Amino acid sequence: MPNPVLGPVKSIGVETILERDRRLRPTLSWPHLIAMGIGAIVGTGIYTLTGVGAERAGPAVILSFAVAGLVCACAALAYAELATLIPKAGGAYTYTYSVIGEVLAWVVGWSLILEYSLACSTVAVGWSAYLVGWISAAGVDLPPMLLSGPHAGGIINLPAVLVALAIAGLLISGTRESATLNIFLVVIKMSALALFVALALPSFTGENMQPFMPYGFGSHVIGGETRGVMAAAAIVFFAFYGFDAVATSAEEAKNPGRDLTIGILGSMAACTLIYMAVAIAAVGAVNHVLVAGSEEPLAFVLRALDHPFAAWLIGMAALVALPSVILVMMYGQSRIFFVMARDGLLPQRLSRVSRRSGTPVLITAITGVFVAAVAGFFRLDEIAELANAGTLLAFILVGACLMVLRRRAPDLPRVFRCPQPYLVGALAILGCVYLLVSLPTLTLIRFAGWNAVGLLVYLVYGRTHSALRREGGEAVASLEPAPK
């Protein structure tokens, strides 16, 4: 019978017969997936949160990027093994459901709402800041009340709302069409970052790197603000994740075993190099105190170095390319909602897909409205920190699933085998736990409150409507694939 605490466990390898209008179409190949990973990873984190990180760690923000990148690399290896072993939509939610149980799977799915939806909102707010800076540089002033939420004295951040709704409309039109457009946006984005490094790095001076670690390595409260290398790592961590959105596309990959491995690991490797180069160029070319005060730090650095046209180009590239992050994250969120609804934990009518486009139209529209609402009324740093909390919990569970499956079913065929799985899994868990506790106390309280509400929703609705419970699902003793 199902575990009374953790709930029933899905079978791995069992081919579920799904109704036609609840199946996703396999239309994506590895170029789409690697571009999806890069599109999600390279975004607000490097374009806008570089300044926030510099404020919290000084020039040592470079170390913050390194720490966050190492933790994400371990998580990426775990994702690559699990995604190819369990090629189903849902990512960390599905892995937890298939290895540990329904209750923790719900917690992960509920937390991923924070990762994907709030990440979309964060990028929308960052995009809005670049839009305002870019238009202002052209001598056009927009009504201030429509450019920020109530926290900054405005009414609503209208540009952030509009871009979120536009991306939702694009996703509704079709997955392959959205993924193809994303490849084009990724090329623009990476070209802009390469231009920034080429112009800023020659101005690097050792004086700007002193003092290198003004607030220490750990996470400390100084002057009412949380500072230190690890405090900065806990927020610039936002700059690295996104590869997990590739895992949510498993059912839509033409060749999941090959394509998911390339998409997850390839996107992480490509992004880590450019991130380190951008961080060194930014804080080495201009004093970190000045960088910390800007909402568009890369464009600010170029203007400070007397490259106004290049700064304008960077701003334009951000305007064009940052929506790719919204696109991929909103895609990931809609697929998490879709699978949870298909499992009965959310209303199953949300899991119906359009016969024309093959996309879950209703849940994508709901996701777009939610993202637009958050982006219109909340602060950038608070949104990013809360999104990070949801992601860190998901990564912790993925690391645990990797190790549990290696011990429970070591002979299960694996397309990709994570090297040193127990070491990698342990490092992913410990690193994510450390980053999680390094977040501000208020963020952790909000995160706990969010999950308390989530558990209440599960007990009231999800537990009683679970498709697996209705079918008499049991914790699986054998993980060998069952016959179709």
TrEMBL record:
By its UniProt entry, which PANTHER family does this protein fall under?
A: CATIONIC AMINO ACID TRANSPORTER 4 (PTHR43243:SF4), INNER MEMBRANE TRANSPORTER YGJI-RELATED (PTHR43243)
Kindly indicate whether the keyword Secreted belongs to this entry.
no
Main location per UniProt?
A: membrane
Q: Where is this protein found? A: Membrane
> Gene3D superfamilies, from UniProt?
Amino acid/polyamine transporter I (1.20.1740.10)
Q: Membrane spanning segments where? A: 30-49, 61-80, 92-113, 120-140, 152-172, 179-201, 221-243, 264-289, 309-332, 359-380, 386-406, 418-437, 443-461
Write down the membrane topology. Answer: Multi-pass membrane protein
Q: What is this protein called?
A: Amino acid transporter
UniProt KW keywords: Membrane, Transmembrane, Transmembrane helix, Transport
Domain of life, source organism = Bacteria
A GO term from the CC aspect: membrane
Per UniProt, what is one GO molecular function of this protein? amino acid transmembrane transporter activity
Asked whether the keyword Flavoprotein is assigned, the reply is no
